[in-house]
Amino acid sequence: MKKEKLTVRAALYARCSTYDKGQDLELQLTPLREYCERRVFAIAGEYVDNGISGTKDRRPQLDRLHNAARKRQVDIILVWKLDRFGRSLKQLVTVLDELSGLGVGFISYQDNLDLTTPQGRLMFHIIGAMAEFERELIRERVKAGLENARRKGKRLGRKPVPPIDRDKITALFEKDSSLSIRKIAGKVRMSSGFVGRVLKEHRLKEHRMNKSICSL
């Protein structure tokens, strides 16, 4: 008895950024459809993010595609180019690694990258090595920059807040405890977050003092 060949379910992804918003997405999708036809892939869905920058963390259709892959609703993902899919080399490697773990294939048409082949997997390892090299390079640059700043006597980290500013905040609070953090922040021209932290420290200090007095 002849064994029936399983149909490969393909998902197509296309993206147009805010800069090339006028671009016809069919320029990306048409070659992908034709490729699926040649490989006898069944198109399970087309996911399109139009007018969305590649640097954004959230891309609605790409998120949907990731969910479909995690639910094993697709067998392979096809994109026009790698830069349409990942916002950075590091993020791209992370996503491709996850897809590999899920058993979902990946093809980048213009880059001639097919992760279902030994050559494609080799290229993926090279991309991963490049991403690691990029991370190390950034770390080394940051480290060198900090060391250079220290040598020049520059203060690193947050600028310390003068005690007089803290005193202004606690004085206003003690004068009128009904004042909100936002109102106090407006009066001393500082952020609400900072004022909140100062008052929290002040209350904690008062609580400790009262506790030590009661124990006498």
Tell me briefly what this model is.
With 216 residues, this protein is an alpha/beta fold.
Describe this structure in words.
With 216 residues, the chain is an alpha/beta fold. The chain folds into two domains: 8-131, Rossmann fold, CATH 3.40.50; 163-214, Arc Repressor Mutant, subunit A. Helices cover 56% and strands 13% of the residues. The protein is built from eight helices and five strands. The chain has helices at residues 26-39, 60-70, 82-85, 89-102, 118-151, 163-175, 181-188, 192-214; strands spanning 8-16, 41-50, 76-79, 105-108, 113-114. Strands 2-1-3-4-5 form a five-stranded mixed beta sheet, with helices on both faces. The termini are far apart. The mean pLDDT is 80.
Summarize the SSE layout with pairings.
Layout: E1 8-16, H1 26-39, E2 41-50, H2 60-70, E3 76-79, H3 82-85, H4 89-102, E4 105-108, E5 113-114, H5 118-151, H6 163-175, H7 181-188, H8 192-214
Parallel strand pairs: 1-2, 1-3, 3-4
Antiparallel strand pairs: 4-5
Helix pairs in contact: 4-5, 6-8, 7-8
Keywords:
Rossmann fold; single chain; 216 residues; alpha/beta; 2 domains; five-stranded mixed β-sheet
